[in-house]
Design brief:
α1 packs antiparallel against α2. It contains 3 helices and 4 strands. It has one domain: ACT domain (Alpha-Beta Plaits). The protein has a 4-stranded antiparallel beta sheet. It is globular, with a radius of gyration of 13 Å. The chain is of the alpha+beta class and 89 residues long.
Length: 89
Amino acid sequence: MKAVVTVIGKDSVGIIADVSNECAKHNANIVDITQSVLKEYFAMIMLVEIEKIQTDFSSFQGALSRLGEEKGLDIRVMHEDIFNSMHRI
């Protein structure tokens, strides 16, 4: 099982490190990542394996959301089943 993590906000040093550290705390493995900086704005999409997370999915979502609030970022986590359902033709 995987989840899609999106991060959007003003660019600053350490965003990737902070988000990847929070994923590591929950034993979520990052399998793919892409990021861009558009002028002063940062955007990132990560695909993370969640099969071995050490908490329930809702707690994992909440932890990343709280990190976003602390850092002034919009961080969202969507289970791949929901993501795939939303984008199915």
